[in-house]
Amino acid sequence: MEVLLRTALDRNWSDTTSLAEALTCATRLDGPVEHAFLLGAPMTKIRKILSAELKPGRKLIQAVTFVDGTMEEETTTEVQAESKAGVTVAAPELGCSEPDLHAAELRAREVLFAFTTPEQQADFLRHNAFVSQGKGTEHRYMITSRHARDRLAHYRRQLFDLDENRAFCVHDYMVPAAEEMLTLHVLLQLPQWERYLRHLE
After folding, report:
1. More confidently predicted of 21 and 59
2. How far apart are CA 22 and CA 124, in angstroms?
3. Mean pLDDT of 58-69
4. pLDDT of 30-53, one tens digit each?
5. pLDDT value for 143
6. Cα–Cα distance between 163 and 166 in angstroms, integer?
């Protein structure tokens, strides 16, 4: 947030006094303080700054989900009005190294739930897994949390093609498990990235 606030100050994206006060609070160590102000900049620019700080050196994919449940990769300068939510995820690594198990992913779950249906959310809560349909192939994939050891014993990997009975070695252990699942789900909705997950590109 400090980098974003400094950038906003440099580029006059909001009231200077409000930004300076927020920046002072952001650099203090005595606990979080909430501030609300309007930034006069496109969401794409703000997201680019935050993503570069949170996931340095990673290949980033921006996507939006719409009220009808469809998803698109965001390549335009502005998010369309009918979009429900937007997210930036890092492309996972292709490979099969052992997961690094850790907890604390409540925020990642909130974002995941913004991009999934009530049925998928119920399956996630019940099984730590849910089915996502690829937009390019129309195949059904089981996306499983790396924490769900019992289900991974059956599906073998976090991404499993139910129609081909085939597991894919693709992962991102640098983010919470729910964010890794979100990334797989988002990329499956974007045909060119579904091909990436299937190791065809």
Report:
1. 59
2. 37
3. 83
4. 455 565 666 777 766 776 777 667
5. 97
6. 8
**118-128 burial: b if 16+ Cβ within 10 Å, else e:** eebeebbeeeb
What's the per-residue H, E or C state across the chain?
CHHHHHHHHHCCCCCHHHHHHHHHHHCCCCCCCCCCCCCCCCHHHHHHHHHHHHCCCCCEEEEEEECCCCEEECCCCCCCCCEEEEEEEECCEECCCCCCCCCCCHHHHHHHHHCCCHHHHHHHHHHCEEEEECCCCCCEEEEECCCCHHHHHHHCCCEEECCCCEEECEECCCCCHHHHHHHHHHHHCCHHHHHHHCCCC
Alpha carbons 89 and 51: distance in angstroms, whole number: 8
pTM summary value:
0.58
**Of the candidates 167, 158, 142, 179, the residue with the CA atom closest to the CA atom of residue 60:** 179
